[in-house]
Amino acid sequence: MEAIFKYIFTMLVGAMFLIFFIGFAYKQVDRAETTDALVLIRGFDDYLLLLTANEEAKDVKDFSSVTTIGFNEGKITSRTEKTSTNRIVYAPKTLTGKKITARTMKWAFPYPIDSFFYITNEKYKQVIVYDDKSRDFVMELMEDINTTFDIKAFSKTDLSAKATAIGNTYQGMARVTFLLISDDKWETATKNKVKAAIPKAVFISAIGQGEETGEDENAKWRPGEITFGDGEKADYIGKEMLIGALYTEDIANYEFNFKRAMDRLSAISDIYKKKAELLDQAMLGSGCDYTGIIGISEMINTLGEYGREGGRNMEQMISISANIERINKREFGGECPAVF
Amino acid sequence: MKGKKGFIHNKKGVIEMMETFMIIFVIFILMGIGMFFYFRASVSESKDVHREVCLTQTTELISAIAKLTDINCKDKHPCIDTAKLEAFALKSPAEKSAVLESTVCRKNITIEQIYPAPDEKGSCVGKQASPDFPKNCNTWQVFSVKASDVKGKAGEAIAIPITLYYPTKDEYGMGKMVITVYTN
Q1: Which of B86, B88, B117, B165 could form a disulfide with B73 if both were Cys (CB 3.0 to 4.6 A apart)?
Q2: CA distances from B29 to A23, B23, B25, B45, B179 (A)
């Protein structure tokens, strides 16, 4: 009886030791696996700032093990770590995989405002769909972004005719976002065909609302309105925001980034306004007049604020931006230093 | 007799049990000491890694900071626009933090003018409209952390040469960007 008790006691103590060491070993393995993700998340803003050294850039981060990172309205989370970012980041709400890809592009309106970041992994794909009217704009866009972005473009008719073949190339994806750039809405038949071939397909559309000019035939498509899958609508200014919609999971995150972009527009406009005031003061009596730029920068600053309220006046913002660019080109350069 | 034998036997058992507990106790103490040294080494390694990451990242970040839309000029070659720099320097700490604050390591960022050699030292904020500019001052404080955040921490300075553009004169000069990183 005593011998049995001894054995049971020894086994219990042995099991305790074993559990302790196994637990310790697992924690160490876990720690090693998530270190890269933690370093990335803790220094996320610095990592993104590093990418901004170029106009357009792409970087792939390899975590060497499956890691889940969450992105939601400026907050970034991993299993154990939470942080927030001040940057404008378009990403799905959750990315699970061994790698993530970060891309960046600079947004200008009319002067360079800030870099936008697009984060994804190999399980998320983006497709632009065009019709005859938007074809030139999409071709120009693809030419601009094809070195950095892995976005495919199909004509609406091709997508409808070859839905199954196109669908085969996107098997096993977590989400494939189709952005239709057109004055027309998605046709239900096309959506059904694509959905049958790609069950994880998501459909959004964009309508251009810009003014076509002789100098720039594609100007119509630069500002406009995006309709998300649930029918909710949001504004966009420039191809950078249009691409942002492709990488964002929902309108709430898209709108969050739009507000941030407006904040940055206000901040940069304020800098240019102060620069114009300084130049105006320094160039007094030289015949250089900066009052136009000062006034307009003030207006764009106010409109940036206005844009955040929801009741936006996009037409007015776009017209002011075009005006400010015109004044800068027409009146400055040569003896009068340009504001931007 | 039977009871006495049982008593002796129980006493032996108690002694054996105490021996076992003593051995387990000693093993736990040894493990505790081992863990203490392991975690101490681990914390020290983490601090070294943090310092290394901080310095490497800051060195890499300098070129990105010089290209921030808030302070850069629109030239093909990277340069810093002193009029934009002044406007940025006048922004509130919260506004600056949104652009430059780092979660990895705290840092102060200063831009110093080297050429043309300044006749006077001090902040250039508010002096650019003067005909003596850029010789009437030599520094712009771009970003500074709260003194309380870096109290007792050692700062390490990293500097790179930069091109400065003076829009009020439409001329270029030379300067350096100094980043003081607080690691420990």
Answers
A1: B165
A2: 19, 10, 6, 24, 47
